Amino acid sequence: MKKVISILLSTYNGQSYVVEQLESIFNQDIDRSKYELKVFVRDDKSSDQTVSVIEKYRENKKANIEFVRTKQNLGVVKSFFELIHDTRGDFFFFSDQDDIWHHNKISKFMVEFEKHNNKKPVGVFADAWVADERAQPTERKLLHGRLQGRLDGNILPLKSQVSEYLVQGANFAFNAASQEILKKINRCYLEYATMHDHLAALTISAVGSLYYLDEPLINYRQLQNNVMGARSENKDKFKLSLFRSRVQDVEDLFVDLHIVHVVLKTANILSNTVKRIDQVNYLGKCSFKRTINFLAIRNSNSASHPVIVSMLYQILFSPNSDSLEAIDHFTD
């Protein structure tokens, strides 16, 4: 029996580029005797012609596309988790609506998946070419050295992900065992999650393994209205506002980590690693224990963050108490 590769595509006002995205998906060079490719689309109540454009493409190309229909605008995080909850398959790929996948992307991912025990949660992610509005690649890679010192072989450990966003949804996939864990995330928690891909990557790393392919496998189109775009490479002098925004990223990631903590605790599969990292949310500012925990988390996995920078992060870091309390409230 063929294994089903399910593409999870959440759209919103994407009529201009979604056909290019679909073409790059259906033109993949996968072994069709082994795999069935299916695209699940959830439109987040677009005000343009996105849905009719996709329907026309499906009709003209006889494409294997299924709509997951809802009448609400949920936002990107909840929309993707609706797709996680309401779809089926053996392997799942997140997809943006406006990128170009290289023809060998899925086959490269499947080679990596097949190296591992897929009865356990496994995720795979890759690098990307940052591209212009025409989806033409620049000479810049999305991760451009940001994984230096963070990988264990080609595994991205959990602790390496709580100091910076590293896993980009448009180039991220997971197996059915991972889907079962992700479906345990209460929809109420998603109100406080930063992004679907970050939460999914943290969860999979906490209970399984997340593998990195050191190769750009998509052209990551940059538009003015991107929900999340490539990090700026502006090398101007130090700016406190930019540094504070980086600290805000860490605070948001620790909220995501707390969601993971609560979900795994409820499922009785909580690890000591998750508990130790989540303690940072509750230890007093500048306390010795919090300082040691924070430095261990940030500094042990990144050659680019010396101790002094990590100390500044931990001094400025303020847990989002309202979000943490709200998440805990749903578990009571």
From TrEMBL:
GO terms for molecular function: hexosyltransferase activity. Pfam families: Glycos_transf_2. Residues 6-123 form the Glycosyltransferase 2-like domain. It comes from the Bacteria. Gene3D superfamilies: Spore Coat Polysaccharide Biosynthesis Protein SpsA, Chain A. SUPFAM superfamilies: Nucleotide-diphospho-sugar transferases (SSF53448). This is Glycosyltransferase 2-like domain-containing protein.
